[in-house]
Amino acid sequence: MIFGLVHPLLDLTATVDQDYLDRYDLKANDGILAQERHREIYEELLNGSRYEVSRIPGGATQNALRIAQWYLKKKHSTTIVGCIGVDSVDAEGEEEGEEY
User: Fold this and answer.
1) Which of 21, 32, 79, 89 has its CA 20 to 30 A from that of 59?
2) CB atoms < 10 A from the CB of 47, how many?
3) Whole-angstrom distance, CA of residue 13 vs CA of residue 75
């Protein structure tokens, strides 16, 4: 059994068009530190975006354990413990995490 103590995150991914990137002053294939002006991206993607949004449990340890679980091909061979916030996404993150 592999055990991880994590700070669970919920990654959001979506395939968007250039207009969307331009609206938020973003570049394709780039990474940024989000600023206040990017806050509404989260609201838009979580609350009825016209784009298909994937919600994937994230964070370095959680991602590593998900890969280990896949590699070992044995159900319940990894376990994580962490805390989630109390907000509009917390229950969803918990449900998504249980799939892995």
Assistant:
1) 21
2) 8
3) 26
Q: What tens digit of pLDDT does each residue of 58-90 get?
A: 888 888 998 999 999 998 899 988 887 776 665
Contact 48, 14 (CB under 8 A): no
Tell me phi and psi for residue 74, to 5 degrees. Answer: -130, 120
Q: pTM for this one?
A: 0.61
Number of Cβ atoms within 10 Å of the Cβ of 81: 9
What is the three-state SS of the chain? CEEEEECCEEEEEECCCHHHHHHCCCCCCCCCCCCHHHHHHHHHHHCCCCCCEEEEEECHHHHHHHHHHHHHCCCCCEEEEECCCCCCCHHHHHHHHHCC
CB of 17 closer than 8 Å to CB of 99 = no
